Amino acid sequence: MTAKEATALQNGVDAILARDGGRQTAANEIRYTDGRLLLPLPGEKYARELGLSGDAPAAAHTCTPGALCGYSGSQYTGAEREWFSCAFHKKPSDWTSGGSWYNNQTPGRVGNWYDANKRWLGSTPPAPYGTKYGQWRGVGYVKPC
User: Fold this and answer.
1) Which pLDDT belongs to residue 58?
2) For all residues of the chain together, what is the average pLDDT?
């Protein structure tokens, strides 16, 4: 990563921390009490942990087993947000359209979407299941159970 790319990545992380809170634990990772947000590195489409080489395949998700994961872009591209605990969690505030998700919780468990007033919008199919084309518009909260 060039110095310019590193600065741009850090500026993006700083903006997310200011807007949504959390704690930075790697150049492209923000940890929360209920999971993490992993950002793609500059010039890459897929989020990945540092130290792992190459992009994830376009058809694959990178969702940790036991998590409900959301992606800012379609086809599991862009930032990846993982949620683990069975509670209401705000979705990233800058996710206002498009996206994708993967339910990688215990087999059979569903995830739930709620609006900004915590009114239920719908559920995912039972795990494991994902969609490469989702919609974050209207979603305010996620509850992975």
Assistant:
1) 47
2) 91
Q: Is the distance from CB of 70 to CB of 62 less than 8 angstroms?
A: no
pLDDT digits (tens, 9 = 90+) for 72-111: 999 999 999 999 999 999 999 999 999 999 999 999 999 9
| Residue 47: both structure tokens together | 């989020």
Q: How many CB atoms lie within 10 A of CB 64?
A: 16
The whole model's pTM is what?
A: 0.89
Torsion of CA 86, 141, 77, 3, to 10 degrees: -100
Q: Evaluate whether 93 touches 121 at the Cβ level (below 8 Å).
A: no
CA-CA-CA-CA dihedral for 142, 50, 48, 103, to nearest 10: -40
Task: Give the SS3 label for residue 95.
Answer: coil
User: If we measure between CA atoms, which residue out of 98, 52, 94 comes closest to residue 76?
Assistant: 98
